[in-house]
Amino acid sequence: MTDRAKFANVRSMLDQKQGKSDRRERKVGRSMVPVASSSRGSNQLRAANDSVSLADRARADLANMNELRIFTDKQLDLLGIVHPRSKDKLMVDAMRQLRTKLYQLQPNKNFSVMVSSVVPEGGGSFVSLNLAAAIAFDQAKTSMLVEANLHMPVLQKLMKLVGKEQAPGLLEYLEQPELGVEHIVSPSGVPRMRVVPLGHHSGLSAEHFTSARYQQLMLDIKERYDNRYVIVDGPSMSTSTDARILSEICDYTVLVIPYGGVTPGALDSVIDEIDERKLAGIVINNQPV
Question: Which terminus of the chain is less hemmed in, N or C, by CB atoms within 10 Å?
Answer without folding.
Answer: C
